[in-house]
Amino acid sequence: MRATALRYLRGALNQPTADFRPGQWESIQAILESKRLLVVERTGWGKSMVYFLATRLLRNAGAGPSLLISPLLALMRNQLEAAARIGVKAETINSSNPQDRARIEQALRDNQVDILLVSPERLADDAFVQNVLSPIADRVGLFVVDEAHCISDWGHDFRPDYRRIVRVLQALPSNIPVLATTATANDRVVRDVMAQLGKDITLVRGPLLRESLKLQNITMPSPAARMAWLAETIPTLPNTGIVYVLTKRDAERVAEWLRIVGISARAYYSGVLPRPSDGALVDNALKQRGIAVEQFNLYDEDVKSALFREVLEEELLANRVKALVSTVALGMGFDKPDLCFVIHFQRPSSVVHYYQQVGRAGRAVEEAYGVLFHGEEDDAIAAYFIKNAFPPQKNVSQILEALDRSEGGLSTRQMEKCLNLSSGQIKQTLKFLSAESPSPVTKIDNKWVATPAAKGYMFDQSLVEEIATIRHLEQRQMQTYMRHQGCLMRFLGEALDDPDVRDCGKCAGCQGRPLLSPEYNRELTNRAAIFIKRNFQPLSPKKKWPSYGPLPIYGFTGMIGDAFIAQEGRALSLWRDAGWGRLVADGKYVHGRFDDSLVTACVTMIREWRAQPYPQWVTCIPSLKHPDLVPDFARRLAVALGLEFKPALSKVVDNPEQKTQANSYQQAHNLDGVFSVDPANVSATPCFLIDDMTDSGWTFTVAAALLRREGCQAVFPLALALNSPRMD
Q1: d(Cα 116, Cα 133) in Å, to the nearest integer?
Q2: How many angstroms separate the CA atoms of 198 and 394, rounded?
Q3: Which pTM was predicted?
Q4: Distances (CA, A) of 323 to 13, 28, 353, 455
């Protein structure tokens, strides 16, 4: 049997002399003996090859299809190509292929699928369970859980939907082999995963050291200095790589900067959508997939983003871009063997995150670089993610109480009307609750209802607090790693409980010197600083009022037609950001007046903006709390532009601050009847509408609609800062 498996391995890899890595054949053999395994091996070891080869051998013996649960379906295309070379017919059901689902379901019924790959979220889909999972449950030949650390509450990437996997496992016959795999689990997580997978679990664990990877840490607080370093260093590095950032906005900003300095780079993150300049790239990708442009335009944004991320991955795999600038979305599962560098623009929150991401590099090359930067913003971002990892008890209580009061349940939109919680908070809480056992909520059609388990349900707050404590300890461990003077690979291995820890001999610590120069060009730094200050944020106009009529006084409902809609606006900065954002915050909360340099910066932004039809006057959003702050700035800006300032709006109701309102319904409703318009101060010509800060955009939307209703031809919103929750 080993000889047959080896022949398949060589065919899959298209390498006639390939051989099993230590532990691979032993894992396959255990699966063939119907055992349950937890395999903890470094990235690039070949975990996917274990379950594809085992599937081929089991199918040869007459077993049913394998079922693979993985959060990484969109990142497994190259592994699937290898599986196809040995005749493994793999199908995947995910958000990017809705057009294929009926065909796949029929192929499963006809026993024409060797392995089915689905995301854990699919287990929450009643239609999937009924139409796909139930018909094959009795004949599953192998059950695979990829990235099994997600099962563990203690894991760095815990996902509530993974709890459903444990319940599926418990329902499977005991003679069905089970394979759980991960590259990122310390002893605590391993123990937790093994306990949840059930008894008689065999652990297969290998060393984490990657021989080709050369690690280096650089502390460089200034984002502009780091951007200058990237601009100067990336062109000197071989082949292609990934630049990791912590936020979507940073992905866009760093990618744009790299393009400006002549480096081919693109932003990659969950939700990324093609820009107008990507038209030819997208058209070609759709043509290859047999998808008409008209059909693509009808997809929702999640499906569009999933398809576009595939296109971006293909660009990197084919070396048509030098780098992708990515969030954690391009972490687990992406396999490009000749990736030669991974640079972290900001410090990840844990050693586990860092090892997983830096492990993308150096799989099939003799030398690859892993460079970790520490910036001034890192700790604040990490603290924000820790704080928001789990839904707080008050959110749980509010949702369960609302469902209990309702007749027939509530949709998420209806919850927004009766609860001051964001759409994201509501969905996060419902996902967590629906994965509990027994679950206090269930979904019937498009509405959520409370179950009998909701009575007396209490969130395990002590567990959440314990996990938060661990996350803070992990953050401090990363701070220690940044300062470490010894072998960096040894530090990572010890932190991850590697059973075979030793010095790598290649990192900056072992070499006693920097591998890549930590110096940066001052002229490039100045250019980057100017770029950050001119990285103006577009403000897209809203096109529809929130559902359920939040603005009865003004009478705004349904679509925001051409008669009332605002033009696309601009924000000068991100709140408290390294560009103008800090100066805006100081002006609002320290000095009580915005600096004249912000007026000059806005004039520059307006000149580059080239708004059409060009505004002929200036007005602003009024405030009762700070009555002079924004009008004073708007008047100075009007003078600088040579335009007239008109106080067209006044505030007649002292409403709560907009930042206390969590969702679109509440944000819009909070503005109903708040402003009045002075018709004598409204000109028919276009205007700039000024505010100090914007977050949801509803203040601009309502104010613009009021001005338009009084006859203003066009309203161009302009904010000094776009708020980011983590920076407030």
Answers
A1: 10
A2: 33
A3: 0.82
A4: 25, 36, 20, 52
- Residue 244 CA to residue 343 CA, distance in Å, equals 6
Contact 356, 495 (CB under 8 A): no
Q: Please give the distance of CA 672 from its chain centroid, rounded to a whole number.
A: 34
pLDDT at 728: 36
Contact indicator for 47, 356 with CB cutoff of 8 Å: no
What is the 3-class SS of 295-356, one letter each residue? HHHHCCHHHHHHHHHHHHHHHHHCCCCCEEEECHHHCCCCCCCCCCEEEECCCCCCHHHHHH
DSSP 8-class letter at 570: E
pLDDT digit string (tens) for 491-546?
Answer: 999 998 888 899 999 999 999 999 999 999 999 999 999 898 887 889 999 999 99
Measured distance CA(157)–CA(289) in Å, rounded: 32
665, 417 contact by CB (below 8 A): yes
List C-alpha distances in Å: 124 to 129, 163, 181, 404, 433. 8, 11, 22, 22, 12
Judged on CB neighbours under 10 Å (0-12, 13-18, 19+), 612 is: exposed
Is residue 84 a contact partner of residue 341, using CB atoms and an 8 Å limit? no
Domains detected in the chain: 2-205 (3.40.50.300), 213-383+478-528 (3.40.50.300), 392-458 (1.10.10.10), 536-727 (3.40.50.2020)
Judge contact between 193 and 151, C-beta under 8 A.
yes
